[in-house]
Design brief:
Blueprint: E1 8-12, H1 17-28, E2 32-37, H2 40-52, E3 56-61, H3 67-77, E4 82-85, H4 100-127, E5 131-136, H5 139-143, H6 149-168, E6 174-181, H7 187-196, H8 201-210, H9 220-231, E7 242-245
Parallel strand pairs: 1-2, 1-4, 2-3, 4-5, 5-6, 6-7
Helix pairs in contact: 1-9, 3-4, 4-6
Bound molecules: nicotinamide-adenine-dinucleotide (NAD).
Length: about 250
């Protein structure tokens, strides 16, 4: 079960955290993995690690906010079977203290980046007779996490894009689902704490861990397992759905 033998998979933001875990697991399960990341060095490092473990993988430096770059990279990669739209950035702020510049930056990566990849990949998936897409949303899309105005807005859009794509390409054999993680311990969280709570990282880490009723953050590998299931033939009956993986964050808090 859960084999991806010879499926060509593109993972955006595969240079770190959740994307890296997905790239590693998909390669283990037989996929031909293409890692896309704006951080060239991180991307190359992940590729080296996966190759050392016998995986078939290549690195592609690409900023998902640029439609031209995404189009070129996807054309080079060739007809794909799986797209995981995982690249994303964090931001802290409410509506009245989020600058226009920050709002645009978050929307550009977390929404336009997803659109750019869908735009370039869907014709390939369709020409291939179908395929599967997983978008990385967040519990922020469900419950609007406090002081994450731009981020929650963007992830709400990711969930809506998932539904829209699932409907529009049902007849083309393309399944599209999203995943909504609660907090996952990745460099995304560490960077966020270092930037926003310098000197209080450990205290804030413990506090963020407790916001999951289960009492900890998720591991990237746990999210990767769900992505694998959704991209495998075992999930052939699943489309147009969001899957929280959140230690009870959405339903058990309060
Ligand atoms: P991360 O910061 O560890 O990794 C994100 C990767 O995306 C990085 O390698 C980064 O270089 C890349 N990236 C950023 N901007 C890019 C761009 N413009 N073009 C190409 N690549 C770009 O983050 P993570 O924690 O692994 O998060 C991955 C996804 O999961 C994000 O969409 C995030 O919003 C979502 N998510 C994370 C958490 C969490 O707690 N970590 C929770 C819910 C959802």
């Amino acid at each position: 079960m859960f084999k991806l033998d010879n499926k060509k998979a593109v993972i955006t933001g595969g240079g770190s955290g959740i994307g890296k875990a997905i790239a590693r697991l998909f390669a283990q399960q037989g996929a031909v993995v293409h890692v896309i990341d704006v951080d060239d060095a991180a991307c190359e490092q992940v590729v080296r690690e996966i190759r050392d473990q016998g995986g078939v993988v290549s690195a592609h430096a690409c900023d998902v906010t640029s439609q031209a770059e995404v189009r070129t990279r996807l054309a080079e990669i060739g007809p794909i079977d799986i797209l995981v739209n995982n690249a994303g950035i964090a931001h802290i702020g409410k509506a009245d203290n989020t600058s226009e510049e920050d709002f645009d930056r978050v929307i550009n990566v977390n929404v336009k980046g997803v659109y750019n990849c869908l735009h370039a990949a869907i014709p390939q998936l369709r020409a291939n007779g179908g395929g599967t897409i997983v978008n990385m949303a967040s519990v922020a899309a469900w419950v609007g996490v406090k002081e994450r105005f731009a981020y929650s807005t963007a992830k709400g859009a990711v969930m809506a894009m998932t539904l829209s794509v699932a409907k529009d390409y049902l007849q083309d054999g393309i399944r599209c689902n999203s995943i909504s993680p609660g907090r996952v311990h990745t460099p995304f969280v560490d960077g966020f704490l270092a930037r926003n709570y310098p000197g209080r990282e450990a205290e804030m880490f413990a506090q963020l861990s407790k916001t999951q009723p289960i009492g900890r953050m998720a591991k990237s590998e746990e999210v990767a397992g769900l992505a694998l299931y959704l991209c495998s033939d075992e999930a052939a009956f699943i489309t147009g759905t969001d899957y929280p993986i959140d230690g009870g964050f959405i339903t058990l808090n309060g």
